[in-house]
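Anyone opening a protein record will find just a pair of labelled lines. The record below illustrates this layout.
***
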Amino acid sequence: VDEEEPVMAPVEDFAPEQEERVENQAPEPERRGRDASKASTSKDSMTKTTRKTATTTTKVVAKAAKAPSKPKTKPTVTKAATPAFVTKAYVALSGFSSVDIKKYSTLVRRLGAILCSGHEWEPSTTHVVFGARGSRSIKFLAGAISGAHLVDESFLVECASAGKIVDVRDKHLWRGGRGAEMGVIDAQATKHWSTVAPHSAFKGLSIALLPFEPSAKIDRAMLDVVLRAGGASLSSVSSKGDVCLTQAEVPDIVITDHADVRTPTAVPRLAPLIDACAGGVLVVTPEFFKSWISTP
C-alpha cells in the first residue's frame, strides 16, 4: 500500500515575510530609548499645560476678588394679616315642637355653631331662639340679664339662607310670644336688656334665699341660676334657720315662696333673719324678680 507523504510548503515561502518583520523591528535598546523620549516629552507637555491652567485659574480668581461686591439688601417680609377673633355661637332653642327642635338643631350644627340642648340654662349661651310656644322660661330670664341675644325664628331662617350665623338686628328680636299674649312679658323687654351690660342687672345686691316648700324646689333652683346670671351675691338659709352670708353682713333682699309676708312669724325661718338684720330688710316672693326681668 502506498502511503501518501505529507506535503510541506517550501521554506522559501516564509522567508521573505520573516525578513520583512525583522527589518521593521528596531533593535531593543534603540526602541526603549525612543519610548522613554516620547514619555518624557508627553510629561513635559502635561506639566506645562497644568501650570498654564493653574495660572489662568489664579488670574480669574484674582479678578473675581477685585470685583466690587454688591450691597446686601434684606429680603422684604410680608406678614400675613391676623384674622379677627370670632366668637363661637352657642345657640339654645326654646318653645319649639319636637319636630322643629330636630330640624333647627341640625341647622345650628351645620352652620358651625354649638347647640345648647336640654331644658336647663347653659352659661355659655350666646343666642336663645324662641318658637311659637316661647314663654317666660329660665332661658328667657337668665338669657336676658346675662347678655345673650333673644331672637325669634326669623333669625335661623336668615342664617340658613346666608349659610352662617348672621348679626342680630332689631327685626330678629323676640317680642315675648305667648308670654306677651298672657301679659307676663313686655314686648320691648328683649330690646331693653340688649342695651344693658351683661351680668349687671343685680350687681351689688346681696340676696338671701329662704328654703322653699318641696313642691317649689324647681322654682327655687331656677331663681338661684337667674340671680347669679344677673350678678347678685346669694346667701343661703338652711332648713334650721342658719344664715350663710357671702359678701354682706346683712342681705339687701330676702326671697321666700310664701305669699303673705306681712307677719314674719308666719314664714318659717324668716323671723330670726329679720332680727339679725335689725328689721331693715326687704322680703319678696320669686315673682318680684321674674317681673323685674320680664316687665322692666
